[in-house]
Structure formats: structure tokens, C-alpha cells
């Protein structure tokens, strides 16, 4: 809803939350989605500059209740990465792990408007000694799409596994290398919230801040000098890309050694055009509702017809597979009173004349970016590994191809692999070995072969 008295041209369509009840995390749950089963088999094969500042006094111990992790605070203060609540946990649905200690955390981060907000996530640290020189590295992980409701968060998937926990084998790969895992849920997964889907300016900081938070947990063995890697695929690829672009300005205290981003929705408008009316239209529904959540001042609800008003409820009541099922073949034109097209929605103005199209464009990767010695707003001083499947069917490949070219032209070291004989979802597993090798080399300080 916009502010009273604001004047808009036309507005935007509605799309969907409502958490499924959680199972107690201490008991493994037997329900698994089709994608989860497939993944286990596959595994066998502009925010302002923010200084971390000194860490604020966190909790004396990780004794928070399960509900405390997901209860949003009345207000958020402190520095990015500060711990607001934590509790020890068991990653029941991350298979074949060597000994580790894990925590669920609620921590301070920054949204796309520069506001302090709280986010949830998971930290896990192997208990075997790190023997490969220097402090133990941390892999800051941005999750694949799980859905927009608070019940869908990665931290709940790893501990209750009631649906959609398909990326767990890749997470065990990171931990079994001896690296710490700092996995954000992203912004908007606390109770009563809606995830800011594919909003890298919010989820990118959350990814950097959970790497900070991992060092501030009472009992953490991580030290400030440890190297950090950033990894994510699909929505997580967008998040990881933004975390990489923001690292120098937002988190200069982190020694980021490299970032791996795959299957990236690098251009939101191009992705929306391909998703609209497709079997994967649920991803577009998540996107629109995520934009509404971060930009409530923009016109949205007043444009909806009855079907549009139901859409948001459906999005919030379903995680990944449910959302895809509900919205298969859906078109945004059918959810507004004026049958507005995507292009018409982009032209809708909010307070100050900002349009939805301008907001969407501001979330694209590769704009005003450059190498460490450039004058660009976003300076990237470490190597990037970009990848996508040869048979990518959900996202258009041209924006990611352009992103690779842009990085090369602006002095950002990167390599781009597109030869995997996989489609969108299975590329996450097809590229897993190359992602591990990329981080092994970065953490070991080996030279990077620029692919430009």
C-alpha cells in the first residue's frame, strides 16, 4: 500500500504466505520431496557503505528457544553480523557429514534500503582440526529457491526437512572439506514476514553478515583472519553475485577469496518475460510478492482483482513445489483489474515518481561494477566463477552471457563455464565438483586463470 494521498498512474498485480506448521527440529522428519530424492542421487555424481564496527555484546550463550530464532525483534540495532539469538542444532537433513557443531542464528543485517533488519540462518563448523594452514575458511552460502513463506527457510529445511531440501548434498560437500558453513536464509523468513525474493541488495548483505555472525557465536572457533568464499545457485546465484559486488564496500573486514554464482537471474525483466505464462511462473509470483514486501510504499494491492488478492495468500502458503504447482501457466495479466501487462506494470509510478521498472533494473547485476582499482561503485577484487547448464530452460541465457562479458570489460576477473549437459535444477549438482575445486584453489591461495 502506498502512503495516503499519493498519486500513481497504474499499479501492480498481486501474488502469495502462510507457513506450514513446523516439526520439532530435534526429530528427523520422514517427508521428502521428489526434488530432494533426486538431489541425493545427483550428489553421488544500492545499499550504503556499512562498516562492521566493533561487535556488540551478544548473547552469553546459545540458549534461545526454537521460536526465538524466528521471532522478529520489535526493533533492530547493533552492527551488521551481531548475534541477536542462537541455539545449537542438528542438521538432520544434510547427509554424510563428518563431526561438526551447528547453530541456528538470528543476526543483524541490512535490507535494500539500508535499514537494519534481522535475518535467520545456520552456521556449522567441523570439529576436526583444520590442518591446511592459516585459520579455517568460511563458505558463505546463499540458498536456492525454497519459497516465500516463513516455513520455507533453508534453516528449517536442514533441520526438519519437511519439503524441498534438495541442495543438502552440496552443503555436506563444503563441510566435509573442513570449511565452516555460514548459510543465510535471506531476508524475510522470520515469523509473519515474506522473503525478499531475488532482491540481491537485501540478500547479498545477509550473506556477508552471516559470515561475520559465524565468528561471533559464543563458542565459535572461527577467527577474524579466516578467508571467506561466497557460493549460490539460481536465486542463490543472484544473491552470491550481489554479495560479491558489495563485499568491498559493505564488508571490507572480510577477506573474500572468491565467489561462485550459477544459474543467475541477472536481468529481472528478461527473466519475468520468459517466466510469464510458463510452467515456472511460480518464480515470477515469488518475485512480485518479494518486491511488494521490500517496497510497500509502491502501488500494488489497489490494482488487484479477486484472483490477484488470492495470489499473495497462495505464495505465502506454499514452498517451492507447491508454488510451482499453483501457478503453472499463470500470466500476470489475469491478476489485475485492468489486465496490465508486464511492461505496463513497469511503468507504474510510486511516491516521488519512481517506477516498478526502475526498481527492477536497480536489482540487476553488472551495473557500475569494476575491478579493485576502478572508479566503479561496486569493486570486485577477487575471482568469480560463473556457470550455467547448456540445457537451461527456466531463465534466458543471454543476460548471464552479458554479465560475463561485462565483468571482463570492466576488469573483474572471472571464468564462465556453460558446457554442463544439464538443465536448470540439475546444474547445481553437475557443477558441484568444479565449485569445490574453485574454492579449494582460492582458499589455498593458488593463481587464478582468468577466463576473459
Molecular structure report:
- The protein is α/β, with parallel strands linked by helices and 452 residues long.
- It has a domain at 34-268 and 369-444: 3-Layer(aba) Sandwich (Rossmann fold), CATH 3.40.50.1820.
- The protein has 15 helices and 11 strands.
- A 9-stranded mixed beta sheet has the order 1-2-3-5-4-6-7-10-11, with helices on both faces. Strands 8-9 form a two-stranded parallel ribbon.
- Helix 5 packs across helix 6.
- The longest helix has 16 residues, at 235-250.
- It is globular.
- The termini are far apart.
Please provide a brief summary of the model.
With 452 residues, the chain is of the alpha/beta class.
Helix content: 25-40%
CATH superfamily of the domain at 34-268 and 369-444: Alpha/Beta hydrolase fold, catalytic domain
CATH architecture of the domain at 34-268 and 369-444: 3-Layer(aba) Sandwich
Radius of gyration: 20 Å
- At the first level of CATH, what is the class of the domain at 34-268 and 369-444? Alpha Beta
- CATH topology grouping of the domain at 34-268 and 369-444: Rossmann fold
Q: Note the total helix count.
A: 15
The tally of beta strands, per DSSP, is 11
Beta fraction of the residues?
15-25%
Give the rounded overall mean pLDDT.
88
Largest sheet: 9 strands, mixed
Shape: globular
Strand order of the largest sheet: 1-2-3-5-4-6-7-10-11
Q: Helix/strand-derived class? A: alpha/beta
| Poorly predicted ranges | 1-57
Rounded to the nearest angstrom, the distance between the terminal CA atoms is 45 Å
